[in-house]
Amino acid sequence: MIKSKDRANYFGASDTKFIMSNWNTKTFDSWWLEKLGLSKNDFENKYTLAGNNYEHKIVDSLGIKELEKDKQIIIEELRLRVNLDANTPNKIHEIKTFNISRGFKLYKAYYWQVQVQMFASKIYFAEIDAYGLTENDYKNYFNEIDKSRLEIHEIKYDCDFIEKDYLPRLKYLARCLKKGRLPSYDEFYGEYRPNKAISLEI
User: Fold this and answer.
1) pLDDT digits (tens, 9 = 90+) for 112-145
2) Spatial separation of the C-alpha atoms in residues 39 and 109, rounded to whole Å
């Protein structure tokens, strides 16, 4: 659980849904202002609060040796700052909570988030450990973990997504962020044509 909520000047793995989204929307504009440090989003609700409070308990319940919590990886040239909930030297464990009455859905945003975690950490095996919360869990953060409510979803590394889809956008947006300006679709597509060789250098 990362204590700092300052999301300015760097892209996180959970930002991948914005990086891969339509840049010509008010939602993207609001997110971009947050990246530039011109606005701040401290949104919390009972779901995010419960998820944050149960995260370490869920990690501990896995009972895995050599499990490291809250590792952070920074790739400065890409303005990428990735936080891992937990990991061993060989596997990433991304913790998600969900309302057990509604069931868990493996959203594309979760898949993208874990892909970027694998890319940044160079740990190419990952799983999403999804834990179902009851209404009582949203009110009381001291409940014990019921392992029968834990779902494990293995995620394979998708090199094509990272190299062909994600990195070109990330590299371009990192340059825009450094210069403090809005991204332009016309400029992006003019620079990153299909099949153009991709380099990590910006």
Assistant:
1) 999 999 999 999 999 999 999 999 999 999 999 9
2) 23
Residues in the chain: 202
Separation of alpha carbons 66 and 69, rounded Å? 10
Q: Across residues 164-182, what is the average pLDDT?
A: 96
Give φ, ψ of 46 to 5 degrees: -65, -25
Q: Which among 60, 56, 74 has a CA at the least distance from the CA of 3?
A: 56
CA distance 133 to 160: 34
Residue of 201, 179, 163, 162 whose CA lies nearest to 32: 179
pTM summary value: 0.91
Rg of the chain over all Cα atoms, to the nearest angstrom: 18
